[in-house]
Amino acid sequence: MKKLLMVVLASYAITARAQVHESQNFLYLNSDSVIYAKRIMFRPDFSGFWQLRADSRRISPEKVKFFSNENGFFANTRRVTFGRTAEFAERIAEGKINIFQEIPYDEFLDDRAYRYGGRPEPVVNLRMYYNKGFENLKKVNYQNLKNDMADNPESMDMLA
Predict the structure, then answer these.
(1) Residues 6+ apart with CB under 8 A from 133
(2) Which comes out higher in pLDDT, residue 17 or 54?
(3) Which of helix, strand or coil describes residue 10?
(4) Which of 12, 23, 28, 99 is most buried, by the most CB atoms less than 10 A from its CB?
(5) Distance from CA of residue 117 to its chain's centroid?
């Protein structure tokens, strides 16, 4: 009986994913582990490379899948955009399918009001992504949406 209980607990530990409380500041890593912090900042270091800081701890952006801080919820677009450095897209719509838009960052101006370096915001940004839950990001296009929304007839009608 003890062996059976140990096997069940071990299999649960292997298959269980991290539980995330989105009301807190956190980093969701590619390894499905979660790091909670009081303050999370996404800023360039002295050499100009972007880095994430969770309290006083430095974390490489390539290791992070999602992060949430007081400015919003962000997803790493590196797996979707081949050959590029780690950039983050901000979640602009939350629901059964989350919509993300890539935001260009000005490394000298960190304030959200000055994010575009004094230039007007782009009217149309073609770099939009989506996901379900904490799955990997996918590019927003008709074929991807058709495959992921096939289980909901109302969504398929709207897509058509």
Answers:
(1) 98
(2) 54
(3) helix
(4) 28
(5) 24
Residues with Cβ within 8 Å of residue 31, at least 6 apart in sequence:
63
d(CA 138, CA 83): 16
C-alpha torsion sign, points 6, 8, 13, 18 = negative
Q: List, for residues 19-61, the tens digit of each pLDDT value.
A: 555 668 999 999 999 999 999 998 887 877 788 999 989 998 8
For residues 42 and 50, what is the distance between their CA atoms, to the nearest angstrom? 7
- C-alpha span between 90 and 66 (Å, rounded): 10
**32 HSE (CA, 13 A, CB side):** 11
| Tally of CB atoms within 10 A around 120 | 6
What is the C-alpha to C-alpha distance for residues 64 and 129, in angstroms, rounded to an integer?
Answer: 17
Tokens standing for 10? Answer: 């071990």
Q: 140-158: per-residue pLDDT in tens?
A: 888 888 888 888 778 777 7
Q: Which residues contact 43 (CB under 8 A, 6 or more apart)?
A: 50, 51, 53, 107, 110
- DSSP symbol at 24: S
Beta bridge partners of 85: none
Question: Which residue type does 95 have?
Answer: G
